[in-house]
Specification:
single chain, mainly alpha
Length: 314
């Protein structure tokens, strides 16, 4: 039994608040020393892998002129093979195997950058990140690695953003629409797993993707306020996203924490609109400051209130 379930019982009045601590001990929901050490062990391993991969990249950057072409490729391929050696002992689904795949995926990017710098292919930067993500696809599929899937998602977002510089003739609305469409497609399977009551990892991924989607539409709407033409699309998309967000997590699921980013996005848009349309004076700045303070206090009071708490779902 999870801690979240016990807290929902307390909110619903099924479990007295004074019995929460004994219930946590009886059900084993509270992490013990062994579980805490295991979590720290995994976090330290991931940190060590990230530091090792960073060390390899900085080694090539610092000694670039001193190394010959063959030495660079031999070292890069040797380090890439070494990162995959733990798979000879541990299965791919083991957390050490997943960490090994993550290290290999990061070093693959360094290897691609080495090829680009050595042969000067003349490719744009977004093509490197796109190729990197495509090469990681079979690894993530065969290894069923959520970590590599997350890395691919980051790389594809970077490729999209960098491609906008290469295709500067595209309208701004088209660029934001492409970025929003890709992330919506990425969010849908994560949202389905979250709604089916999957692990906390899917819940965290769903929250992060929702925040990123709100960042995209809010930036689209705010930047469109200062455009002379075609500024309505960003406002409509922001309104639609806020409405969808409110319906899904305000009425259907009733998850207060996931509604807070939507409130912040709406507040940011109101602040930007106030800067755009209100006269440039200290009274306007004071009004906007008071408004943001009232919104923050209102969200805090609403979040801490017990109204609607028994109906919240995990």
């Amino acid at each position: 039994m999870s801690t979240r379930t016990l807290l929902q019982w307390v909110e619903a009045g099924v479990l007295p608040p004074g019995q929460l601590e004994p219930a946590l001990d009886m059900t084993g929901a509270r992490p013990d020393a062994r579980q805490t050490l295991r979590l720290l062990d995994r976090l330290l391993l991931i940190a060590a892998l990230l530091c090792a991969c960073s060390g390899v990249i900085f080694f090539f950057a610092y000694n670039w002129d001193a190394l010959g072409r063959l030495h660079k490729f031999a070292l890069a391929q040797g380090v890439l093979v070494l990162s995959l050696l733990p798979l000879l002992r541990y299965p791919v689904q083991h957390w050490i195997g997943q960490a090994s795949l993550l290290a290999a995926g990061l070093l693959l990017g360094a290897w691609l950058a080495l090829i680009g710098q050595t042969y000067q292919t003349g490719a744009d930067a977004f093509e490197l990140f796109l190729l990197w993500a495509l090469l990681l696809l079979p690894w993530a599929w065969l290894g069923r690695s959520l970590v590599l899937a997350g890395l691919m998602w980051v790389l594809l977002n970077l490729a999209l953003v960098l491609s906008f510089s290469a295709f500067s003739h595209w309208p701004a609305d088209m660029r934001f629409a492409l970025l929003l469409g890709f992330n919506l497609l990425s969010w849908l399977p994560v949202a389905v797993r979250h709604w089916r009551g999957a692990s906390r990892l899917w819940t965290l991924a769903n929250a992060l993707l929702l925040c990123w989607l709100l960042c995209i539409v809010t930036l689209w709407a705010v930047l469109s306020l200062w455009r002379e033409a075609h500024g309505l699309a960003g406002q409509l998309v922001l309104l639609a996203m806020l409405g969808l967000h409110s319906v899904l997590y305000g009425r259907v699921r009733r998850q207060k924490p996931l509604l807070i980013p939507a409130v912040l996005a709406a507040t940011l848009w109101v602040m930007a609109a106030g800067i755009k349309w209100l006269p440039d004076s200290w009274l306007s700045e004071l009004a906007l400051g008071v408004f943001s303070l009232l919104v923050a206090l209102g969200v805090l009071a609403w979040f801490r209130s017990e109204h609607g708490g028994p109906h919240e779902q995990p």
